[in-house]
């Protein structure tokens, strides 16, 4: 990796009482690239995400986000609300967290709440239907409609999110995150529970998001997705980094095969092969 970094994690440590979930972890994510964080269950991946997105305050280390204009933001000093708003880091969760009773379109409108609140003068201009607010609302609907189209859910715009098929809900979550127009999109196991066809569609969607210029940080167990779309892979085990590199480098690394996939070499090879 030699390019332009959007995210630098430097000696990140996270302890829970006596448990060291992440220890001295350093890695970087390049701008407009897909960086994957992989590792066996309990390796510490979600804890890293929670530190980056402000859900946890790290016990030690630094997390820096550098915007296109050169502004550097120390994420470990901000709470989750400011990380989303100021640093423009968006995330999805392992378990889907849509508003199930709201329509697909409404879920994407809620994601644009901050911009709409500003345009409404924090209520009054919205209440009287001022032109500035109506224009902002139109732009928000256009953006939401655009994303519904991109995730192939335009015909489901008025259906309750909770009534959508599981794979559709996963894509709607990504669309919702994209409606915040993030600089860095963090996805926690977006392919979990998807069938092969849905995983392939997800890979295509994530590549198109990257090609449009959004940087992506991805936690994923589905090796076919990871190996197909990642530009760079960081491998963790027991809270530390054990390897990093291109998909090919990581796939061929004996440390990864042994430590990440356990001691059963046949099984390890089979899982890695599923991504080749
Ligand atoms: N809030 C918490 N309190 C105590 N221990 C925690 C907490 N969150 C995570 N841990 C512990 O930290 C370690 C790393 O967990 P983490 O969820 O980050 O791993 P992971 O790599 O995301 O695993 P998985 O792939 O199963 O989601 C585990 O031992 C876990 O039990």
Would you mind describing this structure in some detail?
This protein is of the alpha/beta class. The chain is built from twelve helices and ten strands. The chain has helices at 45-52, 80-85, 104-110, 113-119, 124-127, 131-150, 166-178, 196-211, 223-229, 247-251, 254-261, 265-273, and strands at residues 5-16, 19-30, 34-38, 60-66, 72-74, 89-91, 184-188, 215-219, 232-237, 240-245. The strands form two sheets. A six-stranded mixed sheet has the order 6-7-8-3-9-10, sandwiched between helices. Strands 2-1-4-5 form a four-stranded antiparallel sheet, covered by helices on one side. Strand 9 and strand 10 (240-245) form a beta hairpin. Helix 3 packs across helix 6 (131-150), helix 6 crosses helix 7 and helix 8 packs parallel to helix 9. The longest helix is centred in the middle third of the chain and has 20 residues, at 131-150. The protein is globular and about 60 Å long. The protein starts with a strand and ends with a helix. The model has no long low-confidence stretch (mean pLDDT 87). The protein binds adenosine-5'-triphosphate.
Which key features would you list for this structure?
276 residues, 6-stranded mixed β-sheet, binds adenosine-5'-triphosphate, globular, 4-stranded antiparallel β-sheet, L-phenylalanine transmembrane transporter activity, 10 strands
């Amino acid at each position: 990796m030699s390019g332009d970094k959007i995210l630098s994690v430097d000696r990140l440590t996270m302890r829970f009482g006596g448990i060291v979930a992440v220890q001295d972890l350093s890695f970087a994510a390049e701008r407009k690239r897909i960086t994957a964080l992989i590792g066996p269950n309990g390796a510490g991946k979600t804890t890293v995400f929670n530190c980056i997105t402000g859900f946890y305050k790290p016990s030690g280390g630094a997390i820096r986000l550098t915007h296109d204009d050169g502004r550097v933001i120390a994420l470990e000093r901000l709470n989750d609300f400011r990380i989303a708003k100021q640093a423009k880091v968006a995330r999805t969760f392992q378990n889907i967290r849509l508003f199930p009773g709201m329509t697909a379109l409404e879920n994407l409108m809620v994601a644009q709440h901050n911009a709409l609140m500003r345009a409404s003068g924090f209520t009054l201009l919205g209440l009287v239907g001022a032109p500035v607010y109506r224009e902002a609302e139109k732009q928000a609907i256009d953006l939401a409609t655009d994303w519904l189209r991109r995730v192939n859910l335009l015909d489901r715009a008025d259906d309750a999110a909770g009534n959508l098929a599981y794979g559709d809900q996963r894509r709607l979550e990504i669309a919702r995150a994209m409606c915040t127009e993030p600089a860095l999109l963090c996805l926690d196991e977006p392919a979990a529970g998807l069938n092969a066809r849905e995983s392939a569609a997800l890979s295509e969607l994530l590549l198109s998001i990257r090609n449009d210029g959004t940087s992506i940080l991805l936690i994923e167990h589905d090796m076919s997705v990871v190996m197909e779309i990642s530009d760079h892979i960081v491998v963790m085990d027991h809270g530390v980094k054990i390897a990093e590199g291109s998909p090919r480098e990581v796939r061929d690394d004996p440390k990864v095969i042994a430590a990440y996939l356990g001691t059963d070499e046949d099984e390890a090879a089979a899982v890695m092969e599923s991504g080749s």
